[in-house]
Amino acid sequence: MLGRVYKAVAAQFTVYGYDDGVRYVCAAKGKLKLSGEIYVGDIVEFDTRERIITGMKPRKNSLIRPYVANVDCVIAVVAPLPEPDFLLVDKIVINAIIENLEPIVCVNKTDTDDGTLAERVEKNYGEVARIVYVSAVKNEIGELIEVIRDKVVCLAGQSAAGKTSLVNVLTRSEAGEVGSMSEKLSRGRHTTRKNEVFTAYGALIIDTSGFSELNLPVENPNGLKDYYADFSEYAEECKYKGCMHLLESEADCGVKRAVINGRICNERYERYAELYREVNDAWKKRFL
Ligand SMILES: Nc1nc2c(ncn2[C@@H]2O[C@H](COP(=O)(O)OP(=O)(O)OP(=O)(O)O)[C@@H](O)[C@H]2O)c(=O)[nH]1
Ligand SMILES: [Mg+2]
Ligand SMILES: [Zn+2]
Asked: 108, 82 in Cβ contact below 8 A?
């Protein structure tokens, strides 16, 4: 039977059977047995009697942090508290673009926001991602339901932004322990994570443990700018072909000019410059 992996704990996989809608706890066979071969979200072939996964369908895409396959969109959850880490949101958005996923920024805890965060998120991401506003505590999740309906979605972002709380409200059940790790899964050295798939509104929702570091799959620093849709219109006015928008003089750079004129969000541009240096350092280390 074909099914989707809903849960992966140690070498045991919970597979949701497509034909009967039953959840089977399975082991895996051969190479698939190896740690890290099967991701949550994978579509697998399995033997219902032996409860063994025998094959895997090619992946549409996959995320490396967290390890999830066949995702439609990734939702970066932010809140007034903890203080949002927008560099992390930038990375999540770039990862989504690279993997051909729709990036969504979800502003949670609107019950505690006087509009400051909403405005800041709009300025930073209004041009590059769909933004939804919710409050898990107040049960105001209508906009989120609209974007996740019938999709495979992954909730990502800082710890304590309220991802599990949102899943809880979405599934209207105790999906996990709010504020604590409900399950720990260790694969490889020093990596602890939990990834579980929940269902609501026809969607598969992957709740991930909060993370503060995300490696970008971007290797060449000169390619980074191409992931900034909010720069592209202005980049056409740059004097030099292949401009990285890091020149001192704004006379030669359309992007820099747009930052000064307030048409490109200043803090987003500053983070671009920071990320460029980060990617550039890693690139140089590889080749020098
Ligand atoms: N005021 C308010 N608090 C919220 C809201 N949603 C979640 N919280 C609180 O935020 C805290 C963290 O929520 P979690 O859902 O555990 O956060 P998380 O993103 O899953 O965190 P990790 O699992 O560590 O990544 C809890 O104390 C929640 O009660 C909200 O809409 N409004
Ligand atoms: Mg959580
Ligand atoms: Zn430029």
From this structure: no
